[in-house]
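Take a look at my tokenised protein here and describe the backbone shape.
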Amino acid sequence: MNLESRVRPCDATEIPLKSFFLGPQSENAQWLLSSVQEMLESWFAWRKSSFSQDGIAISRTDQLIPEFQTRQARTRALLAELSQRLEKELPKYSPRYVGHMFSEISLPALLGHILTLLHNPNIIARESATVAADIENEAIGSLAGMVGLGSAQGHFTSGGTVANYEAVVRASARTYAWLAAGAVQRERGEGELSAFQAAHLGWEAYQGLRETISESELSQFLPESVGPCAASRGLGRAFSSDFRTPALIVPRSAHYSWRKAARLFGLGEANLYHVDCDRNNRYQVEDLRALLRQCQAADQPILAVVSVVGTTETGGVDPVDEVDAVLEEWRSERGVHIWHHVDAAYGGFFCSLLRGSATPLEREVEEVLDEPVKRALKALPKAQSITLDPHKLGYVPYSSGAFLTRDQRDYRCVQVLAPYLDYEDPLAGSLLSGAGPEQADKGPFTLEGSRSAAGAVATWLTARAIGLDQAGYGTLLARTIRQKRKVEEWLARHLGSARIYPGCDTNLLCFCIADPGEATSLSNERTRRIISRLAAESRYYLTKTEFPLDSKISEATRAFINQWEAKVDTPQITVLRMCLMNPFFDSLELDIEHIRHFVVSISEVAD
């Protein structure tokens, strides 16, 4: 049958987006093949023209030797074997895959990634990446513009976990630097700051004190200099009390990387404080206020307050604007400067829905977002630091994360130099002087040493080819939110026992199937059965998550199980979790209507 005869028209505004993806049936295969061929031919020509006077190392005679050809044939056979094995991987490119936070890769990102692998630059310094280091800076500038920052310091990481660690390391360095300055002042008898007050001095006050303090005076209180135990003893002596390890405040919905951070960076999980969530699974700001007061009363410094844009389980968005308002109140009224980090690894790209408004059609893109979500996204520029993951909603290949700060002093408050690298414009002077040029090499300031430029280049190319505004990513991501809402509406209309979990703000949806009064054990068993049967029959690929029903039950979970007056006989409720990133899940042209087919499939396997 002629495929073109079955095609139904789609919205004209979405046709350009089709050029950015290979398509479920490799519809853009010829364009991709020709692009890769052109790229390889250019690379071959570049290599041939560089130092051509050196001559060739592999002759035609060498290539005709049987052993030479045998080795190449063996490699080709292994490559075919590897290809066959990888084709048994999950079909993440397909609209039928609605599981974890990955989907189809955009063609600009794929091409940028492949091209970078050919040149293999290490963006630890310009001397090992003379071009790619600049591309990284330009890509960071594009991401900064997307989230509303006029300019930003930052770099690419291997993912959101490391980007979150970058925030912890810097917040820790800043906190202890300010503590150390206050401790020196107290030991000199020049001030009576408490540990809490000193830990949140602010850069201006710190730099005023720092002018009269030597490195040796400061270093005796710095964990990176004398170790955490000696630093804590010194701070306890200076502040005339047992020094308390700084607290890290995160929402209960936070990614598990924050638990890792508390362990890895010596805070301990006992000092990882959780803000409760409300009925919509969002940050309870009043609970945050209570924790701030608690820390102040106990003279316990606060390393950072974290809010999340795009939670891992539900895609929920915390009220970043309200969190910032609380912290601004503490800054202006009490002189307490607390680091605010926004973990927007997943949801940060929804800022593209806010940027543009050039036409009435593009303004409709922003209206897809609920008002609380819009307010939260617009508040991102006020945070001290932000985590983004282009390898999620940027449709960029793994691994590509990014860390941004708006204040150069916050970015440069950590530094380690390698003697064998000739850094361009390295930070001069004190470790915590906060000085330094805008375009210094990133290597001295990153947790990771060697870093591939592939994520940065892939992001750079997508930012320019697709656009991080309403006409580009905004239109694409608005489509994914709309199709999530359609699934929700179909479940409610055609499957009365579907129970939707609160707080699914973006393009994630969590739900279970439960009859009135049904025990949670029965619902949990059904959830597992649905996932396994759908996958076994190659219908759809979903994931699950669990929410506690014990003493840690949240208001959102309580409201959820109350939908069917559940009999609680398990320690947790297990729910279906679907991430509707694939832009073709609600495609008019396909022969199958996935939303209808999905709901029918759920109904068939649930019984």
Observations:
- Residues 160-187 form the longest helix (28 residues).
- The two ends are 36 Å apart (CA to CA).
